[in-house]
Design brief:
alpha+beta, Anthranilate synthase, ten-stranded antiparallel β-sheet, 10 helices, globular, binds the ligand C=C(O[C@@H]1C=C(C(=O)O)C=C[C@H]1O)C(=O)O, IsoChor_synthase, isochorismate synthase activity
Amino acid sequence: MTRPLSQLSAPGQLAAKVFETEHTDLLDLYRRASGRASSFYRRNSQGTEVLGLGVALQFVADDADDATMAELHERLSERLADVSGDTSKLRIFGWTAFDVANSRRAHAGLPDWSAYARRQLYVPQVLLRCRDGKTDAVVLAEPADVDETWAAWQETFRSTVEIPSPSATEPEVRWLDQDEFRRGVGLVTDERVAPKVVLARRAHIEAAAPIDTTTVLRRLTHAYPSCSVFALSPHAESPYPVFAGATPETLARVNDGHVETMALAGTSRNDAGQAPDLAAERALLSSQKDLDEHRFVLDMIVDALEPLCSSVAADPEPRPHRLANVSHLMTKISGELAEDVGLAEVVDALHPTPAVCGTPRDLAKRLIGEIEGFDRGLYAGAFGSMDLEGNGQFDVALRCGLIDGASALLFAGAGITADSDVDVELTETRSKFAPLLDAISKE
Ligand SMILES: C=C(O[C@@H]1C=C(C(=O)O)C=C[C@H]1O)C(=O)O
């Protein structure tokens, strides 16, 4: 079984050093480093790209240790406090699963989450950050190894890699979990087990040749420019599936005591493969069902932020947020954080919102575990990066899946309320598979 390597923190003193580099195509470096622990993000907010490679320091919460993000951040910050050199450019990467307490369920023949810690924060060995066509690199290693570590990564960046030619045949797609999804919708609409439960299902893709994640990421960046495009690989003993996608949903962005977030829930009724238009958005803005499911999210986020903030403000009305596959209702929310509150505390307070879980939260989470019968893993979890002061951005992991050789397992869900129609909800999830499905399928 593939496993995350045990807690890895270099025993001695660590040093950080910034290097100049000419590389501006981080996806090309991502391809060359394939098979190593890596995190690639292209941020929706400013088009900044970051690539973290290798692991210098990592803290993991798992079955035996259910540490919060704030606790993990504190442990890392303590460890980083005595790093020598230029630490200003260091970034902490990490993620949290949808449900950290959920027991792992693997299904034979499908990519699974066994290589992924449920919650982790780590500092990569080398972090490359490209902004406005300029890239800098910061290396974290034992002082005597810093230059050598950078030289070894540069060697990797120069390696030749074969760029696979796109497969001529379309992959096979199997739609999974439809019976469970239908049963779950019935429980909410007929038996009213909870006011809102977000139910997900999976699609399994078998391609004729190994799926090229770099090509998938380039296509996602092109088709979903307003989304955060991401690919995460854990630090594991043997080959692992890559978790990749293009998400429209920011969980929180923190900058100097200011937090920005969004309620994103409610989805246009266009068919899968048909782009949303003004008529679909007008219908969305007047759909009581969508406005209700949106309201649950907005109210919860404002309630969760209030204890952390001196002030919280939200747009007066939701507006449509258009993507290539669907439009969503979006309300922007912002706040001024109390002293000593950073991104890790905000992630702990917000995740999971009713946009991906439901309301009330604990009941919805339990119902999801009972109805879905599969491990969501990092799907509907949160991932991102932050600096040592707790500034940074975490996004909600949506429109995504695990890519494992020629096989991929995609995840998509929809908010179910008393007014849901099961066929409409199934179509909505089908539209939400489109980003990754198209990026894998298209020539
Ligand atoms: C659950 C997903 O998306 C979430 C659910 C939405 C909805 O039910 O309308 C809209 C956006 C997301 O917050 C998903 O993409 O899998």
